[in-house]
Write a structure and sequence with these properties.
It contains 12 helices and 8 strands. It has 445 residues and is α+β, with helices and mostly antiparallel strands. The chain folds into 2 domains: 252 residues, no CATH class; 135 residues, Immunoglobulin-like (Sandwich), CATH 2.60.40. The strands form 2 sheets. It has a 5-stranded mixed β-sheet. Strands 2-6-5 form a 3-stranded antiparallel β-sheet, with no helix packed on it. Helix 1 crosses helix 2, helix 2 runs antiparallel to helix 5 and helix 5 crosses helix 10. The radius of gyration is 31 Å and the shape is extended.
Length: 445
């Protein structure tokens, strides 16, 4: 009989042996995992903020989920290492001191009986620590699968919206009906799956409810990828200790979320996160102040608060929202197929369905695109309209955007306000709104 046959006595004996030594593997894996997670946490946070800054929703969701998974693993594994350290220390103390001898403490009878009832024995304390450590280590990775399950449900809704409701797979009339039915099914299934999860299988226990719930459970086992970790889940649920730990961790995560969301407000009126204006200068608008990882320019940026040259460099970062505004202003630029979002660099077929079929045509459309941007956006210093001509460029940290240089040689010294104004169409009229305002000081060398 093969050694990896799960019914084999040899295999069961091997598993029993590995169980006794699993704490060593747990500490080794936890140590490497904690080091790797601490190394990856900051780059993931920076990429998430970069995606948010550039309005890249898909990329933001991916890095947001990775950031949550990283945070959960870090908390659980650090707690596991602390408890394992306490367990090892308790084993060493037991070797020196043995079990607790309450009579030698010399306490009154009332305290002695109370402590004997609450503690019982030192060996029981060590056994409980062992159970907590083993279960906590396993549940750390199970929680990552739960985060993945939530992500898959959200992605399934996005897929239905993009490819069925707004796509060309089905006729227009049918796509709306089919898409609405699928979204309602996903939402109801998500709610029932959540109820079943927090009640630890209540929907599976009631005979008539379980019949209705089973088809939903079967579909969602594929959507949430639960077939990958289902044995681990039910091994927790059939164990009273595992149930208790899961119920204990849920409020702990909620408390941690509430604590991390707390902030101390120093003023009733002043907020350091407010946008630049005539009375406030946010560092996101000054390139020389963006010195830390995760610092990204706002809607408009200039080199510094103090400008001593006879010219002023102005940078406007690109974003998907900005492109939507350009399409809204000049509908001829809107492509038949929107290629924004996730895509592969591997091109199987280069026969595009729309008018962008050659490098020459692409270059021509880019010129129209840039011309539309310049038509929409204007710059003003104080009350003086400036003669700007934006071009496409890559700025700090390889950020794509629009750049121009303003002649300020005749500008008087002192404080000034730079305005970025934008035209937009509202019904049959074109209105101008302020996109950004930032102060700067001009002093000649």
């Amino acid at each position: 009989m093969a050694n990896n046959d799960y019914n084999s006595p040899t295999f069961k004996k091997l598993l029993d042996s590995l169980q006794q030594q699993s704490w060593e593997l747990e500490l080794i894996i936890s140590g490497f995992a904690i080091f790797g997670l601490f190394t990856a946490y900051e780059p993931l946070r920076v990429e998430m903020m970069n995606a948010e800054n550039e309005d890249q929703i898909y990329r933001f969701v991916v890095y947001f989920i990775l950031n949550i998974a990283c945070s959960i693993l870090l908390f659980n594994l650090l707690l596991h290492v602390i408890l394992r350290g306490l367990w090892i220390g308790s084993l060493g103390l037991r070797y020196v001191s043995g079990d607790i001898e309450f009579e030698k403490l010399g306490y009154s009878q009332r305290f002695t009986k109370y402590l004997q009832k609450r503690i019982i024995s030192f060996d029981r304390y060590i056994a409980n620590l062992e159970n907590y450590c083993s279960v906590l280590f396993a549940i750390s990775f199970l929680l990552i699968f739960y985060v993945l399950a939530m992500t898959m449900i959200i992605l399934s809704i996005i897929v239905v919206v993009n490819f069925i409701i707004e796509g060309d797979i089905l006729p227009k009339g049918a796509s709306g009906v089919v898409g609405a039915i699928l979204i309602v099914f996903i939402l109801i299934g998500m709610f029932l799956t959540f109820i079943d999860f927090i009640t630890q299988g209540w929907l599976k226990k009631k005979k008539w409810i379980s019949r209705l719930y089973f088809p939903i459970y079967w579909v969602f086992s594929f959507i949430t990828l639960s077939f990958l970790y289902r044995p681990l889940v039910y091994n927790f649920l059939d164990n009273r200790f595992g149930k208790r730990l899961i119920l204990l961790l849920a409020p702990i995560y909620i408390i941690i979320l509430m604590i991390t969301s707390l902030e101390y407000r120093q003023s009733n009126y002043i907020d350091k996160e407010q946008r630049s204006s005539s009375i406030f200068a946010n560092k996101e608008n000054y390139l020389d102040m963006l010195t830390e990882d995760g610092d990204f320019p706002g809607r408009m940026a200039i080199p510094s608060k103090i400008i001593s040259e006879p010219y002023l460099k102005v940078f406007v970062p690109f974003s998907e929202n900005l492109e939507d505004r350009i399409f809204a202003y000049n509908d001829s630029l809107r492509p038949k197929t929107d290629r924004r979002g996730l895509s592969s660099s591997i091109q199987v077929n280069t026969n595009w369905s729309d008018k962008i079929t050659s490098a020459h045509q692409k270059d021509s459309i880019r010129k129209v695109y840039l011309k539309t941007f310049n038509e929409i956006h204007t710059l003003k210093i104080d009350t003086l309209d400036m003669d700007e001509d934006f071009i496409l460029t890559t700025g700090m940290n390889n950020i794509l955007g629009f750049e121009t240089y303003l002649n300020i040689s005749e500008l008087k010294e002192g404080k000034h306000l730079l305005y970025l104004r934008r035209k937009r169409k509202e019904k049959d009229a074109v209105v101008t709104v302020s996109d950004a305002i930032l102060p700067f000081w001009h002093f000649k060398n």
